[in-house]
Amino acid sequence: MRKNFIVFLFAVMLFSLTACGNNSGTQKRSGSEPPAATQQATAPVEENKPDGNENESTEEPDSSVTANDEETQMDTESSKILIAYFSRVGNTDFDANVDAVSSATLNLINGELVGNNKIIADMIVDLTGGDLFLIQTDKTYPSNYRQTTDVAMDEKNADERPELSSHVENMDDYDIIILGYPNWWGTIPQALFTFLEEYDFSGKTIIPFATHEGSGLGSGVSDIKELCPDATVLDGLAVRGSKVTDAQEQVKNWLDGFDILN
């Protein structure tokens, strides 16, 4: 009987020691590894992946549209508009038999020789009711187009300011200046440098447009901004010279963005 009791007691003690050893191992494992749920929560996330549509762009929204909208908010109801433009026609003595068809800058409309910028300027006058003004120089440019480009290059290299023969007597009356030019060697003609330096455009709004044969506005807008730092210079319009007669809708859509249509 006593022998059986000793065997029973020994068995109980052995069972207790085994149980304690198992409990100790469980505590050690729980302290070194987080539960599965915790591992999932702390895993790296795809920071650039957008919410919702997986094809959605991750780029920052373009704020230029908002900025431009704010910039173009003008008091157009009381604004007076001047459409000032420079053109070869009006600054060149053309022969009576000049071939307008083969020229990159000339058009024959109802028997009258008309420059590309005059066509766009006339469209703007019709759409806005603004006043029209031709920027003219004392000197005349060659009737030959290639010779004119050579003169324009010489003027640019010399940073020349051609003397003007036409002047706006009441520039203070105008709030918005829509300024047209042919793209000469990547920017505005030097005559426009003279024009922009002749007047105080502080507080005025300048809206450029250019005719071209592949160079767009060039650096004209940035040059205008540099010449008129106290004016607001808005987005410009570039029209290919060969397309000017069909540009009515393009011009209208452009001006509509400034809310200055009749």
The strand count comes to 8
Percent of residues in helices comes to 25-40%
User: Which term fits the overall shape?
Assistant: globular
CATH class of the domain at 78-256: Alpha Beta
Portion of residues in beta strands equals 5-15%
At CATH level 3, the topology of the domain at 78-256 is Rossmann fold
CATH structural architecture of the domain at 78-256: 3-Layer(aba) Sandwich
Describe this structure in words.
There is one protein chain. The protein is α/β, with parallel strands linked by helices and 262 residues long. The protein has a domain at 78-256: Flavodoxin domain (Rossmann fold, 3-Layer(aba) Sandwich), CATH 3.40.50.360. Helix content is 37%, strand content 15%. It has eight helices and eight strands, in the order αααβββαβαβαβαββα. The strands form two sheets. Strands 1, 4, 5, 6, 7 and 8 form a six-stranded parallel sheet that branches. Helix 4 packs across helix 8. It is globular, with a radius of gyration of 38 Å. It starts with a helix and ends in a 6-residue tail after the last helix. Mean pLDDT is 76; it is low at 14-72.
